[in-house]
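Data availability (excerpt). The following record was deposited with the supplementary files.
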Amino acid sequence: MLLRGLLLASLVATPRLDAQLNGVPVWPVGLPVPNAPPLDLIAAVHTTSGDDFVNLATEADAGVTLGMDYALGPRLTLRGLLGAIHRDVALGQRRTEFQGAALIGVNLIQEYLASGENEVGASVLGGYGYGTLPDGGENNLVVGLDFTTVIGMGGWFIEQAFVPRWSFRHTRVASGGDWQHGPAISGATTLGFPFGLRLAITAERVFLGAGDASPPGLPQTRTYAWSVAVRYRF
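Predicted structure:
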């Protein structure tokens, strides 16, 4: 138990976000688009606030993520993500770690307003993400809701979304691991172009409780993350 505690304590400086992937806000799945191509490619850059742990300042953690959404039917979206982030892995040590995730979103409500260009809707989503560590890894589970509105402008559109959720994270090192969980919320604004290109800006706030292992467990986390993504629908 003492060795386990010491190993977990060595990760105190590690910026770990209770998102599906480290440093990557949970992006909304949005609303179904009838007659649109099913494949939607994603390329994003992202970073964090660098203050993941209460009363402890760490450097911001930049990364890149590539992925795709695939519409499987009129209301079902499947998402796959792969990326890397340059992050603290121990006190005074930083390195690039790889990570990946899968997510599923199911649209529950979609309502058209006014002329038919404006929409509101809600979806439920859930996903799993994994990130590597030098002597272990992090497993993240998320479940939440996606509330989306779309303002149409004759082929152009602005989409706004909020994604409240609950997250579970398990941090594993060579001799053991620890669970943490807590709420988080993402907010996204997307500008859509008539030819399938979109630009999405997303921010996230995380409230993650302390771990329950002793000694000493993992400290609570209060983190921000931001991302800019370019998306293209084929």
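Summary of structural features: Residues 2-9 form the longest helix (8 residues).
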